[in-house]
Please model this.
Amino acid sequence: MKNIDCQPKRRKARRWLLWLALLLAPGLVSAQRLSMLRAQGGKIVDAQGREVVLRGFNVGGWLLQESYLLKTDTLDSQARIRGGLLRTMSDQELEAFYEQYRATFVTKADIDFVAAQGFNCVRLPFHYDLFLTRQQRLERNKVSRRPRDPQAVEAYVQHLAQWYDQNQLFTDAQQLDGFRLLDQVLSWCAANNLYVILDLHAAPGGQGTDRNINDNFVPLDLWKRHDRQGRLIYQDITVRLWEKLAARYQHDPRVAMYDFINEPHRVDIENGLSNDNAEINVLYSRLINAVRGRGDQHLVLLEGNGYGNEYTNLTPDKLHVQDRSNLVYNAHRYWCPNDPAATDPNPNQINLLANLAAFRAKWQVPVWVGETGENSNEWFAGAVQGLDAQNIGWCHWNLKRVEGVTSLLRVRPYGSILTPAGRAALLRNSQFNQCVPNRDVIAALTRPATARTPFAALSIPGTIHATNYDMGRNGIAYHDAYAERIDYRKQAPTNNGSLYRNDGVDIEAVTDQASNGFAISDMAAGEWVNYTVSVTKAGAYTLRARVKNEARAPSRLTVKLDEAVIGSLTVGPAAGAAWTTVAVPTTVLPVGRHTLQLYVEQPGASLSWLQFDLSSTPTTQGGQ
Model:
């Protein structure tokens, strides 16, 4: 018998088994299904040339806090939130809080939930300061403590210039929170076969005047601020950051696009700049050349002036670049019509559906709606229908919002971020398992336009809370005269209370007996709501309704089952708008699944609940 050395074969076998184990790891298996995306004419395609329409959610409020998302509106920016915290906290305590916040506000469970709804991407807004060292952020904290002190701002700028010149910016990727967090999100998303759009939401210096969005110390400093050497230092730093990002991710198929700068705005002659986006052109051209100079062929997403929508002097032919491949043009759609025939006379203003499609056709570039939302479910459904008809992808704003009815997840109120108790509650309430999914928002974004589905399981006999009407579009699940915002100048919410649901139906908070905490209010004549109900026992019922009437005249509500009137309620005016219960007999209700409709004949009433009871059926209407 020969003496055969088996070690090489064993080592080879172990290497093969290790490779197989890695290949079968959940995150890597998903990553194998993702391929680098590229532009092909007006389409985004994968490595096999198959069209990919990116539809997903923005993960805002996490790596950049926006005050309105957290209900800290009076502070209006992350820097001012940090400044408020620094009145009672040390720098180290502040860093510790933000480390906890970043560890809990979004986790893999949130990303898993996004994927489970059928979406295929997330857009990840982030602040450039996450790519500073913690020691460098201490210098930024000094400005947060004295935001109105020009000398404090100037000192910070000079520190940035010094770090830039000494190559001390964004260099130690292993020690920087930004790279660690981006890598983490990419891993979570790959495990769910989701692409990621990297979005520099708060650029160095600030790309506009809205501090909530870009967390600037001085408005428009990205475009204006010169250092002592006369350089537009914030632009130099922005280019350096994207060079570092490209160096790290240039071969990473999990990254769908680089979104260079979120929502430039007010870059105009009124603010001492050009009237034709010349400054934006120069910086975008630099950024494209910097990324392409590293051999990185990722899709790059350009955002126009005017909150991401206006592209005068930014079309492909105007950019000062040699490589015009893999450009994607962005629109942010809020409070505008979804009518596919509506147009803007400026062909470079592309937030309207017709302008989006025309821009794509003219320049043969993909277009993508990087943000859309902050409206009613009726508007969401119409937007999705219009965009899907054109094969234009979109990303809903936002994943989470405190007391938000327009987001995917609703965070319960927590108090004040400036108190220890409030911060503890925020860290707790914002965790995925503490959030409330907005099921009606999910339905509006994912269900067919004609769908009507139950919001809750409702049975007769039993109690039906008025606000648990079916999910669906205006004219299908409900009818309301004002169900969507299509004019940005009209600020009135479609739901006057902005509570519980996100439709045109007005909802108020109540503490009345047996309520679910909410009631339908401000009901106008001709409006109605539908409920899918199961009648489990046939017979005539007593219908009781918990109502109030703040008008001067009686209100009248008709209740129908499958279009047949089964009862009529008259609600007289009540002193002090007190809640009362009125009761009427119904016709005989058959067993089975039915549509119950509440129809407003005369306005004025608010309704908390309807109750159907087989016993003690009255012969006339009564109240208590």
Summary: The mean pLDDT is 93. The first helix runs from residue 7 to 24.
